[in-house]
Write a structure and sequence with these properties.
With 619 residues, this protein is of the alpha/beta class. It folds into two domains: 113-337, Up-down Bundle (ABC transporter transmembrane region fold), CATH 1.20.1560.10; 357-605, 3-Layer(aba) Sandwich (Rossmann fold). The chain has helices at 18-26, 32-35, 50-59, 70-82, 85-90, 92-123, 127-132, 135-177, 179-187, 189-226, 228-233, 237-289, 295-337, 398-405, 428-434, 449-453, 462-471, 475-480, 498-510, 528-539, 554-557, 577-583, 585-596, 602-605, and strands at residues 357-364, 375-382, 387-391, 413-418, 421-422, 435-438, 516-520, 546-550, 562-567, 570-575. A six-stranded mixed sheet has the order 6-7-8-3-9-10, with helices on both faces. A four-stranded antiparallel sheet has the order 2-1-4-5, with helices on one face. A hairpin with a 2-residue loop joins strand 9 (562-567) and strand 10 (570-575). Helix 10 packs parallel to helix 13 (295-337). The relative contact order is 0.09.
Length: 619
């Protein structure tokens, strides 16, 4: 049973497999001169395949005193020309083509199934998994590693099976010619197997290190390209190129170790084969002199031994490739077999949901920062038909409350209830249909505006998409675009401005008509008019819904029915705008400083728990 998973990185096939790939492409079947003989094969100077020579020698062995000369070659040629082998061999290349095509098709399907299973496993992981693993690493697993596994396995198993058949036939003929020399030949095999085992373990470890180094390089490239505007704004292109170059140099150092390991492996196995061949010549000569073996049979045996050595060399290359594929496969199957630590196994999906939310003594810590209490004994309620605002300095825990309400992370203590039931008890898809989030930095997909608004709702009527866009004040700018609602937004919405992206994201939330709507700095990139229109929508047409707002603008929160003030993970105040101003305290200071237009202090602006806004100001 596959063991659970740790995390990793990703790569692509090594240059050391090039020889194996070339051998596969050049020799899809048996060598051509043994398949389809040409007239030159019947000339007196042509090389005779060992099978034909042995056939003649087996039928008409010469005496120990008969020299192996032209007469033996002539007999071999006659046997070759009279045997059915040429016609049978000529039929091998179509079979080899069929075999190669079948292998290609099988392992193309393997690659697709492997990627599909890996992707399904990745998207089912808990949110903290993506906090701990870089995007570039995961993409490398999904692309380079899966390709390496399927390619290396398909190439090398094909070669391995072909050489296994050849080795089986060769061994049978070798024992038929001389069991003594066969035993001498196989005495060196335990040494070769021991060398192969040591080399294989070392090479597999090196291969995993290479893949990890390549994944780090891929991550660097992905981060740089995705943040190219930032890189260019600081004129840091050359430095980023140097960082990437250093990552590649680390890969190259590991490649050199791979090359050295392969070199020593070839030397060790080659030296062993050389000793075996010398032993065969010595002992074979003794058998010929003593009359226990004919010279022709000795020559045939030596030719078979050469064929066996060539097969063993191919198997050695296959072993290297398979070890490389095994290293990639371990990384891939670690993620495929990994079980999420937070399982969404809730079953509740009621037909009607009132939308009341209760935080009861919630304590929360991020797994990436286990020693930092982000929320401590937090309690407050969101009422249906009411707008609740969360305010506080940066790092006070506002966005963490949103993450908990969305059931992104497990709680350390306390409960979050939706209509009196724990949010974990609700069906995963149902929960996120009834709770919609618009974040400060909305993410749009490289699809049409219609597809982005109806994301996750493929059967949504177009009329409802337009209605949601109108509520979000997005319809007018969408209609001004050349393709209207069919306009492609580009990667991460790059074809739209920040305000346009936020309005499309707002429409994506409103089209679901959610009982609970969360706006996490959702109007921060909007102009005053657009913000006013969206506020009107929130306080007007959404009166039957539960609305949670996180914002720092006074104009956004002052009309809320309830304002909850957080500071360092604690609820320090609750009430309406007027009540909190009358109480004084943190909220009153924040409002006063914002109205005076003073600058935020560096301590507050550099909050440690979450990157949301800045609510502290220096006097």
């Amino acid at each position: 049973m596959p063991r659970p998973l740790s995390r990793g990185q990703a790569p692509r096939p090594r240059a050391s497999l090039g020889r194996t790939g070339r051998r596969l492409s050049r020799h899809p079947g048996p060598p051509c001169r043994s398949c389809c003989p040409t007239p030159s094969l019947t000339s007196s100077s042509s090389w005779q395949p060992p099978f034909s020579s042995s056939w003649q020698l087996w039928e008409r062995p010469s005496s120990p005193t008969t020299p192996a000369g032209p007469s033996m070659a002539l007999s071999s040629r006659r046997a070759w020309s009279s045997s059915p082998r040429p016609s049978l061999s000529c039929a091998c290349w179509p079979l080899a083509g069929i075999r190669g095509g079948i292998f290609t098709l099988i392992f193309a399907r393997l690659n697709i199934r492997l990627r599909n299973r890996l992707f399904r496993s990745l998207v089912s992981q808990e949110t903290s998994f993506f906090d701990e693993n870089r995007t570039g690493d995961l993409i490398s697993r999904l692309t380079s590693d899966t390709t390496m596994v399927s390619d290396l396995v398909s190439q090398n198993i094909n070669i391995f099976l072909r050489n296994t058949v050849k080795v089986t036939g060769v061994v049978v003929f070798m024992f038929s010619l001389s069991w003594q020399l066969s035993l001498v030949t196989f005495m060196g095999f335990p040494i070769i197997m021991m060398v192969s085992d040591i080399y294989g373990k070392y090479y597999k470890r090196l291969s995993k290190e290479v893949q990890s180094a390549l994944a780090r390089a891929s991550t660097t490239a992905e981060e740089t390209i995705s943040a190219m505007k930032t890189v260019r704004s600081f004129a840091n292109e050359e430095e980023e190129a140097e960082v990437y170059s250093r990552k590649l140099q680390q890969v190259y150092k590991l490649n050199r170790k791979e090359a050295a390991a392969y070199m020593y492996y070839v030397w060790g196995s080659g030296l062993t084969l050389l000793v075996v061949q010398v032993s065969i010549l010595y002992y074979g000569g003794h058998l010929v002199i003593s009359g226990q073996m004919t010279s022709g049979n000795l020559i045939s045996f030596i030719i078979y031994e050469f064929v066996l050595g060539d097969c063993m060399e191919s198997v050695g290359s296959v072993y290297s490739g398979l070890m490389q594929g095994v290293g990639a496969a371990e990384k891939v199957f670690e993620f495929i077999d990994r079980q999420p630590t937070m399982v969404h196994d809730g079953k509740l999906a009621p037909d009607h949901l009132e939308g009341r939310v209760d935080f009861e003594n919630v304590t929360f810590t991020y797994r990436t920062r286990p020693h930092t209490k982000v929320l401590q004994n937090v309690s407050f309620s969101l009422s249906p038909g009411k707008v609740t605002a969360l305010v506080g300095p940066s790092g006070s825990g506002k966005s963490s409350c949103v993450n908990i309400l969305e059931n992104f992370y497990p709680l350390e203590g306390g409960r979050v209830l939706l209509d009196g039931k724990p949010i974990s008890a609700y069906d995963h898809k149902f929960l996120h249909r009834v709770i919609s989030l618009v974040s400060q930095e909305p993410v749009l997909f490289a699809r049409s505006i219609t597809d982005n608004i109806s994301y996750g709702l493929p059967t949504m009527p177009f009329e409802m998409v337009v209605e949601a866009a109108q509520k979000a004040n997005a319809h007018s700018f969408i209609m001004e675009l050349q393709d209207g609602y069919n306009t492609e937004t580009g990667e991460k919405g790059a074809q739209l401005s920040g305000g346009q992206k936020q309005r499309v994201a707002m429409a994506r939330a409103l089209v679901r008509n959610p009982p609970v709507l969360i706006l996490d700095e959702a109007t921060s990139a909007l102009d005053a008019e657009s913000e006013y229109l969206i506020q009107q929508a929130i306080h007007g047409s959404l009166q039957k819904h539960t609305v949670l707002i996180i914002a720092h603008r006074l104009s956004t929160v002052e009309r809320a029915h309830l304002i909850v003030v957080l500071d360092k993970g604690h609820v320090v105040q609750q009430g309406t705008h007027q009540q909190l101003l009358a109480q004084g305290g943190l909220y009153a200071r924040l409002v006063q400083r914002q109205m005076l237009g003073l600058e935020p202090t560096s301590d507050c602006a550099a909050g440690h728990n979450e990157p949301s806004g800045s609510g502290c100001y220096k006097a």
